[in-house]
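Progress against Task 2.4 (sequence-to-structure conversion) is shown through the following example record, which the project officer requested during the mid-term review.
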Amino acid sequence: MPGYLQKLKKMDALILNWVQAHTKTALMDKVMLFFTKLGDKGAIWIVYAALCACSDKLRVVGIHLTMCVSACAFVGNFAIKPMFGRTRPCNLDRGHSLLLSRPEDSSFPSCHTMTSFAAAVVTAWQAGGHLGVTSLVLASMISFSRVYLYVHYPSDVVVGMALGIATGSLFVMGVA
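Structure tokens generated for the chain above:
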């Protein structure tokens, strides 16, 4: 394994273990489960897209959200994850108790993060204002919840964020 991948692996473990050791509380467990469940299967973004599509003012946002979130979910889950096949931290350390069902698919990239940041970018650019800020905060919380809940490495989330921002940007610019 190349040296830079070894360093990345060590950094992932260091951050993941720090989060587990320093942020875990009963209240945070409930909060992080809530945010992760919002991101399951892109559910919050699909509901948001449907609401936007019903509004004359936000119809284009709703259409772009639907296309963008669908593209991210499909490409992330059916192309990128199988290509890399990275084992999730919770599956390497099966002794770690989880607050949710143990996911068995690949870890890289975080599709919760990818779809969330794609949706947040579309919303921030096309709707702006409080909707954009709220979407970015929600995407961040969903993303952090994945590391907190021990189902993703930090680098899975960072790459998911970068791919989501890139995909959302392409949709907004009309390239995708």
